[in-house]
């Protein structure tokens, strides 16, 4: 239990810490039940009960939202088999009002029976539940074995023939498909549905054990002599076939023959012998004639396993290779479970017989359990809003929970205090790393203000921040010209157009003008070089985000298209950098008083360093600002009362070209912007990775209100979409666009972070807010109404930032 942290402050009940996967937590809960069953020692009973109930999921069928996106049928099956053991051994029943062991097992069975499909390979369960997961095209024996095992045991416990029918059906399909060799009773790993005749030939102990145990249950369930003889023959056949797993001088020491001899057992495979031992012993209880064959194998294996338990810091860690007679240097929860289970299995003759519903069983069942679960099939769902998508898991799990993403553990949090700690008070513990860094590094470079840490970040910040002082932010002359180009490009004859596209063009024009002193001119007449620059920019942003989604391993695969686009981007910026440097040398007069690039060059930094900063500000200044503006117009088009109230405030200013000071004093205009950024943050989520073992203030304890220990190297992610919709902070209508909420006594801190927070808060925050305010002012001075022309729900697309998925389709009416 030294490997288990679910019972410690901040731990997640039922989960082993990374790198262990969710299913092995279910296997461990089953091992704790076995420990109590064989020894009578209840010290771990509360841990097992808590873990089994905590991971059951909202529909009580072991499809918890923090696992379902990556959950396979075999993963769910291990939890189902654990609660089946709890029912059979009369393990302490859950409290009233909680799901009961038998009902939980029935729910797992029901959801899996609904996934049986005959379109490919004539039947069986796929390895994966959802189409998007790697392995969906594979039908593996352990998924069938878990399903068969649960069905057979449910038939015996409940006396219901329908479970037995499913067990028979599964066995028949395994034999017909060739995964179960009818002659040798050996069981092979699986098959890809593209070629059902090509079997993956590996054999694993847990496949043999799951079918052996289930066959023994079917022998007990069968009423007629003929049926019993059939299942007796199958039990004997499976025992014969399992002899392949016993090696050594006496051919009696359990060995994972597919991986142990070649030192290739992965983390999962290191635990398989635990379940084989468990199910061999249980078979001897339901098929007593097997005891004489099973016990010598278990006894020899237990002695061999015990001989390896001399390793680790405490001298009690067990190895994987029991044949060696000594510790092999490996340490893990799987090795410990396997050694414990094989030792306990040797006392099977002294253990009480498993109970059934008709003979001593106390667990309450529910034949229809699991029927509400969305995981029962892979059907399509109607579109849901951004808020629902981002918040669904927090709503059904907790405000802080662990999940697996791309094979790695990830901590998700919706606690403002945690975000404050990460971005503010303990910023030094949480550098930019992991998914956030992977997504931006190819485009922005390693020295950018958004990708660097430590001294490198301080240097970049010191260079960039002075460029956003009040005098530059308040000077609207440069930006006014580009807003004028935008307004001139808008059709005013009730024509439907995409305002988001125009805004992206405008902010690219204004950003390059502000940064480089030369606009791309997309709204007027762009040069071929500028047009190619924009194509490269959009391609690189999209492909860089995709590349990050592959995870660290596949991320390293070369992407020549992305590399070419980034070279083109940097060459474009390099041209203006060198042009500006040359003008500086010759003393040539500038067309404008202020250009961002000029300010950067005053510190005489390296060329590559300057390009990294320019690319960073360009991403922030173009994409995020345009997306935020588009969202504001999206919401206003659907709230004509807000448009009228905004136009009334604009009329009171009495000026078609406002100053920065006038814009700052317009309360309703600024409330519209605040409300837009609350419901739509262009950077929808953020993450950091801990550089040492550290503490977050919320997420631990039974109710999630206690501190939680976060290990070194753990990535933590949070969503501004969810934070900004906290009904306890923003009111019961937090999902609605209502600028008036900011007129009240609403006080927010880390619950509202559209520009992030702490020392790394966006340096261009005031610059972006000023641009948005100025654009809205000028737009609604010229147009009196804006109407939506797209009935689609509010959805976004992602690259390095987010934007409206279908654009902002509207029509306008002139004032």
Automatic annotation (TrEMBL):
This is mannan endo-1,6-alpha-mannosidase. It holds the Pfam family p450. Residues 358-372 have a biased composition (Gly residues). InterPro entries: 6-hairpin_glycosidase_sf, Cyt_P450, Cyt_P450_CS, Cyt_P450_E_grp-IV, Cyt_P450_sf, Glyco_hydro_76, Mannan-1_6-alpha_mannosidase. Keywords: Glycoprotein, Glycosidase, Heme, Hydrolase, Iron, Membrane, Metal-binding, Monooxygenase, Oxidoreductase, Signal. Its main location: membrane. It is found in: Endomembrane system. GO terms for molecular function: heme binding; iron ion binding; mannan endo-1,6-alpha-mannosidase activity; monooxygenase activity; oxidoreductase activity, acting on paired donors, with incorporation or reduction of molecular oxygen. GO terms for cellular component: endomembrane system. Transmembrane segments: none annotated. Belongs to the glycosyl hydrolase 76 family. SUPFAM superfamilies: Cytochrome P450, Six-hairpin glycosidases. It comes from Staphylotrichum tortipilum. The keyword Heme applies. It catalyses: Random hydrolysis of (1->6)-alpha-D-mannosidic linkages in unbranched (1->6)-mannans. The keyword Glycoprotein applies. Residues 356-375, 687-707 are annotated as: Disordered. Its cofactor is heme. One of its GO terms (biological process) is fungal-type cell wall biogenesis.
């Amino acid at each position: 239990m030294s490997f288990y942290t679910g019972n410690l402050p901040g731990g997640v009940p039922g989960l082993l810490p990374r790198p262990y996967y969710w299913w092995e937590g279910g296997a461990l809960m089953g091992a704790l039940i076995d420990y109590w069953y064989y020894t009578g020692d209840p010290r771990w009973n509360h841990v097992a009960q808590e873990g089994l109930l905590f991971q059951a999921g909202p529909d009580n069928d072991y499809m918890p939202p923090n696992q379902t996106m990556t959950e396979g049928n075999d993963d769910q099956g291990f939890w189902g088999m654990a609660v089946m053991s709890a029912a059979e051994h009369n393990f302490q029943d859950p409290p009233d009002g909680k799901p009961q062991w038998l009902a939980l097992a029935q729910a797992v069975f029901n959801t899996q029976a609904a996934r049986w499909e005959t379109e490919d390979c004539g039947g069986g369960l796929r390895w994966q539940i959802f189409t998007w997961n790697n392995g969906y095209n594979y039908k593996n024996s352990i998924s069938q074995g878990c399903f068969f095992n649960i069905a057979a045991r449910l038939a015996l416990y409940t006396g219901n023939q329908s479970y037995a029918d499913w067990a028979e059906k599964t066995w028949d399909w395994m034999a017909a498909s060739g995964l179960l060799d009818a002659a040798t009773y050996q069981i092979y790993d699986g098959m890809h549905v593209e070629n059902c005749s090509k079997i993956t030939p590996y054999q694993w102990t847990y496949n043999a054990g799951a079918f052996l145990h289930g066959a023994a249950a079917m022998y007990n369930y069968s009423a007629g002599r003929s049926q019993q003889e059939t299942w007796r023959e199958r039990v004997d056949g499976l025992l014969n076939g399992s002899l392949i797993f016993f090696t050594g001088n006496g051919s009696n020491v359990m060995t994972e023959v597919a991986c142990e001899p070649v030192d290739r057992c992965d983390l999962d495979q290191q635990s398989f012998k635990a379940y084989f031992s468990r199910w061999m012993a249980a078979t001897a209880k339901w098929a007593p004639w097997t005891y004489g064959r099973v016990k010598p194998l278990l006894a020899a294996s237990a002695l061999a396993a015990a001989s390896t338990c001399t390793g680790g810091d405490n001298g009690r860690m067990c190895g994987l290779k029991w044949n060696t007679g000594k510790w092999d240097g490996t340490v893990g929860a799987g090795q410990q479970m396997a050694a414990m289970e094989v030792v306990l299995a040797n006392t099977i003759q002294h253990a009480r017989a498993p109970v059934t519903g008709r003979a001593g069983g106390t667990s309450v069942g529910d034949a229809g359990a699991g029927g509400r679960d969305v995981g029962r099939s892979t059907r399509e769902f109607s579109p849901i809003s951004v808020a629902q998508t981002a918040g669904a898991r927090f709503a059904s799990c907790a405000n802080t929970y662990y999940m697996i993403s791309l094979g790695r553990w990830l901590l998700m949090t919706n606690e403002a205090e945690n975000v404050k700690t990460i971005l503010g008070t303990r910023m030094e513990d949480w550098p930019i790393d992991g998914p956030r860094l992977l997504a931006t590094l190819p485009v922005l470079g390693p020295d950018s203000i958004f990708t660097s840490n430590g001294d490198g970040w301080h240097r970049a910040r010191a260079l960039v921040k002075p460029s956003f002082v009040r005098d530059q932010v308040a000077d609207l002359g440069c930006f006014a010209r580009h807003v004028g180009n935008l307004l001139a490009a808008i059709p005013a004859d009730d024509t439907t157009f995409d305002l988001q596209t125009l805004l992206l063009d405008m902010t690219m024009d204004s950003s390059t003008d502000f940064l480089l002193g030369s606009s791309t001119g997309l709204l007027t007449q762009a040069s071929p070089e500028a047009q190619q620059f924009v194509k490269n920019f959009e391609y690189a942003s999209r492909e860089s985000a995709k590349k990050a989604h592959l995870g660290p391993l596949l991320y390293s695969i070369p992407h020549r298209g992305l590399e070419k686009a980034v070279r083109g981007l940097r060459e474009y910026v390099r041209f203006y950098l060198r042009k500006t440097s040359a003008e500086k040398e010759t003393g040539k007069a500038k067309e404008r008083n202020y250009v961002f690039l000029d300010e950067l060059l005053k510190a005489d930094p390296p060329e590559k360093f300057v390009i990294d900063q320019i690319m960073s500000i360009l991403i922030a200044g173009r994409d995020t600002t345009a997306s935020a503006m588009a969202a504001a117009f999206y919401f206003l088009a659907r709230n004509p009362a807000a448009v009228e109230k905004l136009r009334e405030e604009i009329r009171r200013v009495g000026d078609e070209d406002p100053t920065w000071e006038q814009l700052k004093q317009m309360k309703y205009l600024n409330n519209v912007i605040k409300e837009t950024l609350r419901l739509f943050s262009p950077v929808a989520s953020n993450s950091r990775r801990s550089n040492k073992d550290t503490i977050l203030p919320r997420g631990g304890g039974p109710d999630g209100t206690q501190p939680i220990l976060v290990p070194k190297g753990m990535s933590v992610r949070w969503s501004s979409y969810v934070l900004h919709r906290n009904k306890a902070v923003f009111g019961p209508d937090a999902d609605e666009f209502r600028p008036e909420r900011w007129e009240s006594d609403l006080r927010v801190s880390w619950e509202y972070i559209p520009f992030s927070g702490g020392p790394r808060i966006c340096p261009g925050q005031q610059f972006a807010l000023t641009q948005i305010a100025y654009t809205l002012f000028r737009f609604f001075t010229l147009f009196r109404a804006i109407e939506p022309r797209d009935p689609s729900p509010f959805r976004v697309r992602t690259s390095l930032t987010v934007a409206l998925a279908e654009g902002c389709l509207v029509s306008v009416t002139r004032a």
